[in-house]
Design goal:
By secondary structure, the chain is α+β, with helices and mostly antiparallel strands. Helix content is 15%, strand content 35%. The protein has 3 helices and 10 strands. The longest helix has 13 residues. The chain starts with 6 loop residues before the first helix and ends with a strand.
Length: 206
């Protein structure tokens, strides 16, 4: 039977190395070059500020190392090939009273979709989506605005920053439903799935 654990050593190691709690983070959308102004309304709705208070959950992006199998003397030997970054991330949001952020994500989709969901009639009401003329000539695709999402890990005091993960070229792909019920009075919530091109880690500046 092994000896009893050394509690003093345990506490000292926890104190020295610390632990990463799942709620020590914040996030912010950063809008880059937008020459056509297609995301001006989205930027206004998101206010260019941290949206952490409305985000229930997120993820730190991951990476997968691919392996090539080579037969050698009766064994399959694994050789590392290329590493792949994850390119999708789900975000869970609490619903605001005026649904400001959900509308921002819907408008964001409108700006990118080849269906003109933003089309309006003479009375200003939305009309049936149609293939819009705002698609990029020759390519058939609209402009994809340059937006990054920065997820920052915080120190335990929730003031100092440890490091950030920057997700480049992010855009929404799915906006989830909001469940309505008379059974309970709870904060409405919905999920938004995003696609991005790549990510990198950025150390905090002192």
């Amino acid at each position: 039977m092994s000896a009893n654990p050394n509690l003093a050593q345990f506490y000292e190691e926890v104190k020295t190395k610390g632990v990463r709690l799942t709620n020590q983070w914040k996030m912010k959308f950063n809008f880059g070059d937008d020459p056509s102004g297609v995301l001006s309304s989205v930027n206004d709705r998101l206010e260019g500020e941290s949206v952490t208070i409305w985000a229930e959950g997120s993820q730190i992006p991951g990476r997968t190392q691919n392996v090539v199998e080579l037969p050698y003397q009766g064994y399959n030997m694994g050789i590392p090939s290329h590493a792949e970054m994850t390119t999708g991330i789900p975000l869970n949001f609490r619903g605001q009273r005026n649904m400001q952020y959900k509308h921002a994500f819907e408008d964001w989709m409108d700006t990118m979709s080849n269906l003109d969901f933003a089309a309006t009639g003479g009375d200003g009401a939305r009309v049936e989506p149609a293939l819009g003329g705002s698609a990029v000539a020759g390519g058939g695709f609209k402009e994809v605005p340059n937006v990054d999402l920065e997820i920052t890990l915080m120190m335990p005091n929730m003031v100092d920053e440890l490091e950030s993960y920057v997700l480049k070229g992010i855009f929404p792909t799915t906006i989830g439903e909001i469940e309505l019920t008379n059974d309970a009075s709870e904060i409405a919530a919905y999920n938004v799935d995003f696609r991005y091109q790549y990510w990198y880690r950025k150390e905090a500046t002192s």
